[in-house]
Design brief:
Shape: globular
Radius of gyration: 30 Å
Mean pLDDT: 82
Helix content: 25-40%
Strand order of the largest sheet: 5-4-3-6-2-1-7-8
CATH topology of the largest domain: Heat Shock Protein 90
Largest sheet: 8 strands, mixed
Strand content: 15-25%
Length: about 550
C-alpha cells in the first residue's frame, strides 16, 4: 500500500479536477427538474416572491409565444446576474432567516436558483424585460443555438441593455412603476391540451386580494366545494413525537352526484397532496395509502384534498415532487390512514342509501317529464308528421329528429353511425357530389341542442367542419363567443355567425357559416369556416314548402 502511494505521488503531476459542459448540463436539468406544465406555476411563484399583486399569462400565435407579465419589484443588473447563475438565489438567505417580502410580508416560495433553467425547458428564446422603481428598464435575451444536425450548440446570454423604450413591453406599458415581463418564444407547451391542468395548478398558489393571476384573460380562482355533492372532512395532524410544531390542517373531499352516479372529478385533481406555503408538492399521498385501505377503488376517481405542511419547506427537493426526509411523510401517512378509511366508509354508506331510491326517483322524474312533453307537443314537428315531436333536451334527441328528417329526404345525407360517448357525434354519408368533402362523401357532424353549446363545451373549431343544431340562441351565442375567445390559447380575432349571400349549389340551402378568424405566428389573419345547419329552421322551411304546394 505504501509503495502504491509513493508511486502515485511521483506520477501525478496535475490532479484531475471536475469539468462541466454547461450547455449539456442546462439541457439535462431543464428536461428533468420540472414538468412543462409546472414551469408557468414556477414563474408565477417568482412573481409572488417579487411582491406582485397581479400576474398575467398570455399565449399568442398558436402557442408560438407565451408572455408572463407582473407588477412586482422588478430586477436590476445585479439581480439578472444572479438569475443567470445556476443554483444561486438571494432568496435562500431570506428563507433560512425567515425574512418576509418587504411590501406584502409574504413568505418566499422559491429558493433553489434554478428558475432560469425551467424557462429554457419551454422554449428556445427567452426575453426578459424588467424595471425597478426609479430606474431604467432593462432587457436580457437568452437564445438556444443549433448546429447543422439540429442539436443544441450553445445557449448564449446577451449583454444587459438599458433603455426606457423597453417599458412598452411591461404590464402597464410606459406607466409601469416596476415589474417584469418574460417572453418565451417557440414554446413547446401546447396550451390547448393543458389549459385546464395549468389553470388548476395556478389555482393552488396563495391567491388573495393582493395576489391575482390571469391565464389568457381568465381569472384564476380557487376551487371550492359548496354543494351537497361533496362529502368533506377537516381535521389536524400532529407529529408531536417528531416536533411539537409539526401541525398540519387537512382538508379532504369526495365527490358523488346521486343524479349522475358515474360522474367523477378530472384526473389532474385526484389525490391527496401536501401544500407548503401555498405550493402544491406533487407527491400523491393517497397512492401511498391505497394498498393499506379497504375498498379504495370506490373513491379513486372522486377524492381530492390537501395537507398543509409549511414546516417541510426546507425539506423539499428541487423538482417539488419529493422530500429529502421521507420519515416525516411516513408519519403523516400513518395519521391520514384512519381518517381516509372513515371517509371511504361514510361514502359507501351514503352511496348505498342513495342507490336504494335512485331507480324509483329516476323513473318518477322521467315519467313527469314524459307527461309534460305529451301535453306540450312541438307544433312544427307534429305538423311535419314526425314520430318524435318534442323539443329536444339532449343531443341524442336531436339525432332522433335528424334521422326522421333523413327518412323524409329533407336532409342531403344519411346517418351511418352515432355515438354520444365519442368525440365524433355522428358520421354521415352525403347523397350529393360535394367537391369539398371526402371522395366517399362521408362526413362528421357535431350535434348540439343549441349552437352556443358548441362554444360552451370548448370544442376545437379546427377539427369540427360541420355543426348541426336544433336551434340558434343568438344572445347566448354572443355571450359564449366572448368566453371562448378568452379561453382559447391561440389569438382569435372574431367569431361570427353569418348567412352567406350566395349558397354554393353543392351545399344544402339552409346552411349558415360560423367564421373564426385567428392571428397566425406570421401575424396574418386566417379564417376557419364551419358549416352550420339549424334543424328548427329546416323544419319551418319544409312546412312552408308543403303549404305552398
Amino acid at each position: 500500500m505504501l509503495k502504491l502511494q509513493e508511486n502515485m505521488s511521483t506520477t501525478t503531476e496535475h490532479p484531475i479536477e471536475w469539468s462541466i459542459d454547461k450547455t449539456a448540463l442546462i439541457e439535462l436539468l431543464g428536461k428533468t427538474i420540472y414538468r412543462p406544465e409546472n414551469v408557468l406555476v414556477e414563474i408565477a411563484a417568482n412573481s409572488y416572491d417579487a411582491d406582485a399583486s397581479i400576474v398575467k399569462i398570455i399565449s399568442s400565435g398558436e402557442n408560438q409565444k407565451i408572455q408572463i407579465l407582473d407588477n412586482g419589484c422588478g430586477m436590476d443588473k445585479a439581480d439578472l446576474k444572479i438569475l443567470t447563475t445556476i443554483a444561486k438565489s438571494k432568496k435562500k438567505d431570506f428563507v433560512e432567516n425567515e425574512i418576509l417580502t418587504p411590501v406584502f410580508a409574504r413568505q418566499y416560495l422559491g429558493s433553489f436558483g434554478i428558475g432560469i433553467i425551467s424557462f429554457l425547458s419551454l422554449g428556445n428564446k427567452i426575453t426578459i424585460f424588467t424595471k425597478k422603481n426609479g430606474e431604467k428598464s432593462l432587457c436580457l435575451i437568452i437564445q438556444r443555438k443549433f448546429n447543422e444536425d439540429g442539436k443544441t450548440d450553445g445557449i448564449p446570454i446577451s449583454e444587459v441593455q438599458d433603455n426606457d423604450d423597453f417599458s412598452m413591453h411591461l404590464i402597464d406599458g410606459n406607466e409601469t412603476v416596476s415589474g417584469t415581463t418574460i417572453e418565451i418564444e417557440n414554446t413547446k407547451l401546447d396550451l390547448s391540451n393543458t389549459f385546464n391542468i395549468i389553470k388548476y395548478k395556478l389555482s393552488n398558489l396563495p391567491l388573495s386580494s393582493n395576489f391575482k393571476v390571469e391565464l389568457n384573460n381568465s381569472d384564476i380562482k380557487k376551487d371550492d366545494y359548496p354543494n351537497n355533492n361533496w362529502e368533506s372532512k377537516e381535521f389536524k395532524i400532529k407529529l408531536e413525537d417528531l416536533d411539537p410544531t409539526y401541525i398540519s390542517p387537512v382538508d379532504l373531499h369526495v365527490y358523488y352526484n346521486p343524479d349522475n352516479p358515474n360522474e367523477t372529478i378530472p384526473s389532474f385533481k385526484r389525490g391527496i397532496f401536501l401544500r407548503v406555503h401555498g405550493r402544491v408538492i406533487e407527491h400523491n399521498l393517497y397512492q401511498r395509502l391505497r394498498p393499506n385501505l379497504t375498498s379504495p377503488g370506490s373513491i379513486d376517481s372522486r377524492i381530492t384534498g390537501f395537507v398543509e405542511a409549511d414546516y417541510l419547506f426546507t425539506k423539499i427537493q428541487a423538482n417539488r415532487e419529493d422530500f429529502f426526509d421521507d420519515r416525516v411523510i411516513e408519519r403523516i401517512c400513518d395519521q391520514l390512514k384512519d381518517q381516509v378509511q372513515n371517509l371511504i366508509n361514510d361514502f359507501l354508506l351514503i352511496k348505498n342509501l342513495v342507490s336504494e331510491d335512485v331507480y324509483l326517483n329516476s323513473y318518477n322524474r322521467l315519467r313527469d317529464i314524459a307527461i309534460e312533453r305529451i301535453q306540450n307537443v312541438h307544433s312544427d314537428l307534429a305538423r311535419l308528421g314526425l314520430k318524435f315531436k318534442y323539443s329536444p333536451n339532449y343531443e341524442q334527441e336531436v339525432v332522433i329528429i335528424i334521422a326522421e328528417l333523413c327518412q323524409l329526404k329533407l336532409l342531403e345525407f344519411e346517418i351511418i353511425s352515432s355515438s354520444g360517448g365519442s368525440h365524433i357525434d355522428c358520421l354521415v354519408q352525403w347523397n350529393i357530389t360535394q367537391s369539398r368533402r371526402m371522395p366517399d362523401f362521408v362526413g362528421h357532424l357535431e350535434i348540439e341542442t343549441s349552437l352556443h353549446k358548441f362554444l360552451l363545451h370548448q370544442h376545437d373549431y379546427r377539427t369540427k367542419p360541420e355543426i348541426i343544431c336544433w336551434e340558434i340562441d343568438e344572445v347566448a351565442f354572443e355571450r359564449e363567443a366572448k368566453k371562448y375567445k378568452k379561453n382559447r390559447p391561440e389569438s382569435i380575432e372574431s367569431i361570427e355567425l353569418i348567412t352567406p349571400s350566395s349558397v354554393d349549389k353543392e351545399h344544402f340551402k339552409h346552411q349558415k357559416e360560423l367564421q373564426v378568424k385567428i392571428r397566425t405566428k406570421h401575424d396574418e389573419t386566417v379564417t376557419k369556416i364551419l358549416r352550420v345547419y339549424n334543424i328548427s329552421e329546416i323544419v319551418r322551411t319544409a312546412i312552408n314548402i308543403d303549404k305552398n304546394k
